[in-house]
Amino acid sequence: MQETLAAVTSGVLVPSNHWRAGEVIDAVAHVPEAAELREAYRELRGR
Predict the structure, then answer these.
(1) How far apart are CA 40 and CA 37, in angstroms?
(2) C-alpha atoms less than 13 angstroms from C-alpha of 16 in its C-beta half-sphere
(3) What is the CA radius of gyration of the chain?
(4) Burial status of residue 41 (CB atoms within 10 A of its CB: 0-12, 13-18, 19 or more)
(5) CA-CA distances (angstroms) from residue 35 to 16, 29, 42?
(6) Distance (Å, rounded) from C-alpha 12 to C-alpha 32?
(7) Dist CA 26 CA 23 (whole Å)
(8) For the range 8-16, what are the long-range contacts, defined as Cβ-Cβ under 8 Å and sequence gap of 24 or more?
(9) Do 44 and 18 touch, CB atoms closer than 8 A?
(10) Along the chain (47 residues), what's the average pLDDT of each consecutive run of 10 residues?
(11) What does the H/E/C string look like for 1-47?
């Protein structure tokens, strides 16, 4: 999960790879600690 957060917040994740981050987020949706990751992904997708 931390690796995905690092990738999402790095600023170098290209749009064609957003789906990969989305898959990780879907897989950890039940984990309360994933809130920060979900928010970072929402911000990324809003760009």
Answers:
(1) 5
(2) 0
(3) 10
(4) buried
(5) 23, 8, 11
(6) 26
(7) 5
(8) 8/37, 8/40, 8/41, 8/44, 9/40, 13/44
(9) yes
(10) 91 90 92 93 86
(11) CHHHHHHHHCCCCCHHHHHHHHHHHHHCCCCHHHHHHHHHHHHHHHC
Can you read off the two tokens belonging to residue 11?
Answer: 């600023």
CB count within 10 Å of CB 11 equals 8
In the numeric block, the tokens 């997708």 are attached to 45
User: Which amino acid type is present at position 13?
Assistant: L
